[in-house]
Amino acid sequence: MRNKKVELLAPAGNAEAFYGAVHAGADAIYLGGNRFGARAYAENFSEDELVDCIRYAHLLGRKVYLTVNTLVKESEFSELYEYLMPYYRAGLDGVIIQDIGVFAFIRDAFPQMELHGSTQMTITGEYGAEFLKKQGACRVVPARELSLEEIRRIKEVTGMEIECFIHGAMCYCYSGQCLFSSILGGRSGNRGRCAQPCRLPYTVGGNRRECYPLSLKDMCTIENIPELIDAGIDSFKIEGRMKKPEYAAGVTAVYRKYIDKYYEKPGEKLSISGEDLHRLSCLYIRSERQNGYYHKHNGKEMVTLNNPAYSGSDEQVLEQIREKYLYKHLTLPVQMKASFLTGTVAKLTLRCDQTEVTVTGETVQEAAKQPITVENISKQLGKLGGSNFHLDGTMDIRVSENAFYPLKTMNELRRKGLSLLEQKLITANGFPYTREVQKPFDITGAHNGHMQKQSGFSLYLRTAEQWNGFLRSSFLKKPKEHTSLRIYVDSDLFLTWGDTIAEHLQILKKIPAETVLALPKIIRLRDSRYLKLLEKSIRDNLEAVDGFLVSSLEHVGLLQQWDFLQSKKRYGDHGLYLWNCRSIEFWTDYLDGFCLPLELNYAEQRQLVNGILPAEKFLYGRIPMMVTANCVTKTTDHCRREEGFGITELTDRYHKVFPVMRNCTHCYNIIYNSVPFSLHKTVAKWKDSFCCRLEFTTESENETWNVLEYFYGSRTDLPYTEYTTGHEKRGVE
Fold first, then answer.
1. Cβ-contact 97, 115 below 8 angstroms
2. Burial 3-32 (b: 16+ CB within 10 A, else e)
3. Rounded CA gap, 107 and 582, in Å?
4. Using CA atoms, how far apart are residues 171 and 219, in angstroms rounded to an integer?
5. Any residues with CB less than 8 A from the CB of 711 and at least 6 apart, and which?
6. Neighbours of 273 (CB within 10 A)
7. How distant, in Å, are the alpha carbons of 2, 26, 158, 166, 261 from that of 266?
8. Would you say 447 and 101 are in contact if contact means Cβ atoms under 8 Å apart?
9. At what angle do helices 553-561 and 126-134 cross, to 10 degrees?
């Protein structure tokens, strides 16, 4: 058993939920202020409320973490410093962050703040976690899809604090990799505005019967507490900032009970009472309970195929929770000793447990008319309502017979004493009562004022058919002078070439074209054998490989481990989310270029073309809406267990058909938009300033050839009938 007890981390969407969770036994609370949090529709906290909550938590020895886990636009970045400053000064314990630009800024501007990598950073293994640790993170919230074995591995390799979800709603998509709500309706999950299209009905393949293949059951791991602790998890996180205070308090109380039982008799099996299981089921559980991905990679049993609604609540249980946790305010006992002797200064001594403070006031005068008495002194000093204290026993009061002291001044003495006692108790608990703040020199990040142009094309090829379509195209038949060409070769395709890798890559060298390997969208511990094979193949063809396309921190960390690649270029994919100049400034040490984000509009993208890193513009391709560990085919039919790719389809209520690419090599799905993204009408204004990216996903050989000929060859008619321009004009809120 570890010496340090696991932290129980509860959510709070408002002050009532905060106090309820604290009273129910939470060790820490995570919450959002009125900006930059991934629950834009939660009630959230005003500045004064949040500061009060920090003070209150520290008084009781608890912690508060602030969610700053949205992507931040360049136009918003200058507001971040003033937003965080009062919370930092009040002793905020940590910040949960998604945006790497925000991460770097807070690290530099608020050096005493703990930095926690949000689950929306999609950390899926030791490489990403280790990279984040080197940047200054002390804690990581890995992707919810990880197994206990993978979590244990991250802990052993990095030594970082690990925070994992143990109860509540589950996203179907790898967190941070979901654009479904954003692309369909403009409500971005990366901005805290997810409309939850995963909870809607779809038909799958040729089946006409509607079901809910993307709606996961809620997680409940109350019976798994011992093995979760044994895996090295440091913080048990309850999901639910959008849920009611009864949920925050009720779920916290049950987990508190059994965590404490575990530590009372470590090694013994926990026996969960039926009453407590019923209590949890009454608190917003979808369908049956399930324990997430800790022991499974995916499965039909994880999905609410027939109904995504919450099970019914029990009003009696809810009322019990309200009465026990929500209608009370925990206060600390304080003993008081006061002295009001004429000719001397008034003195008040306060004692709470072993902590004692003494404050003095003005000189006590002789009374001209009505002298003060023990009774009215006791009444004034005993007005502790609204404070975090209650009177313990009777006051010890000494007062001269003919003493006078203004009641208003007596109240000020009481407030002064309570404030000092609170301050001393907080520092005794190991928390800062206040921090000094030094305004950073640069708020917004680097910008050198000119655009670094990079004309040409980049092509992302995933399959042998797409490769063959490329070989037939004008890119090979009629290459144009002064047009640079970069080919992203999917690493899965690269490995299928086997002994002919050198032959294939030689074709690109003759054009000439830059050869860049695109790593698997998600890499996990299960991919260890694959990565060793890939590493060997790269070593064998090292001269022919020019660089790598990276779309996650996992990729960045992995390539740092492969030190023989240090001279190779690295290009950031749109999944790295470079939304602001701070992000770009951060990545200049690691990247040679980046793809402009898919959720920013044209004007917002132009703000990022700042001469620091060459930018690539996504011009054509189906936008990846979700990357998922669960498999639509396995859920609705059976596991294919085949290497390579397969395609099925999701059809929504409006008869829109979304291709689902099944990657059996790495066991994940990618759900693509129903129509391709295309900026063919505006290609002229992009091609001289950017590397224009054409990305192929589900296209056949002929479809690939047709698209290439339209954008580069002699074809003048559009090779597809429907398309979208995505967020090019509107962007996201």
1. yes
2. eeebbbbbbbbbbbbbbbbbbbbbbbbbbb
3. 12
4. 10
5. 457, 619, 620, 680, 683, 692, 694
6. 11
7. 10, 20, 26, 19, 8
8. no
9. 90
Q: Which residues, other chains included, contact 192 with Cβ-Cβ below 8 Å and sequence gap of 6+?
A: 37, 38, 39, 40, 41, 69, 70
pLDDT, one tens digit per residue, over 33-75 is 888 865 655 667 899 999 999 999 999 999 999 999 999 999 9
Q: Which of 191, 198, 225, 223 is nearest to 213 (CA)?
A: 198
Output the average pLDDT for the chain. Answer: 92
Q: How far apart are CA 14 and CA 143, in angstroms?
A: 26
Percent of residues, the chain, with pLDDT higher than 70? 96
Q: Which residue has the tokens 């490489």?
A: 127
Which positions ≥6 away from 515 have C-beta within 8 Å? 487, 489, 505, 508, 509, 544, 545, 546, 547
Helix (H, G, I), strand (E, B) or coil at 153: helix
Cα separation, 514 vs 709, whole angstroms: 20
pLDDT tens, position by position, 466-511: 999 999 999 998 877 767 899 999 999 999 999 999 999 999 999 9
Where do the DSSP E strands lie in 303-380?
A: 332-340, 345-352, 355-363, 365-366
pLDDT band with cut points at 50, 70 and 90 for residue 225: very high
- Tokens at residue 233, please? 């998890």
What's 680's DSSP letter?
G
What is the C-alpha to C-alpha distance for residues 518 and 621, in angstroms, rounded to an integer? Answer: 16
Collapsing DSSP states into helix, strand and coil, what is residue 466? helix
User: Which amino acid is present at 597?
Assistant: P
Contact 397, 374 (CB under 8 A): yes
How far apart are alpha carbons 434 and 419 in whole angstroms? 13
Q: In the chain, pLDDT over 90 holds for what percent of residues?
A: 82
